[in-house]
Amino acid sequence: xxxxxxxxxLGRSESQTDIALKAAGYELAAWAVDGMDxxxxxxxxxxxxxxxxxxxxxxxxxxxxxxxxxxxxxxxERYREKxxxxxxxxxxxITLLRNALGDADQxxxxxxTELQREADAEVAAAVEFAEAGTPEPVEELTRFVYSERGPQ
Length: 152
Description:
Blueprint: H1 10-13, H2 19-24, E1 29-34, H3 38-53, E2 59-64, H4 82-89, H5 93-103, H6 109-132
Parallel strand pairs: 1-2
């Protein structure tokens, strides 16, 4: 099931469900990419960046991915079968890249362990930073929604 907003199938909210084609309708260079393939995403992004930097104007990439988990902890996920999720988990982008790099002797197990440790530390630091922050003042919540003006 392809989804738009939470709980709304894209086909129910959009007349054109091919998002890259829809972007092309706005005269943007656009193409879809297998978002489950890290190397394909890297190549497409490199190609788009090179084009933009050479003056070819804005580009739009639709990175087609699969969401493994529910929208939130309150989402009972009754709209898809467990077998569907299991099938897509076989295409987990991180696992596929790790295996490809390992098979090419470009990533040793010790390197993978270190990358995992660094990623875990970065996430923990980000969570700590967020939890130590202060809530945005209510009067600032709509700032930048319609304009750049702050409180009047």
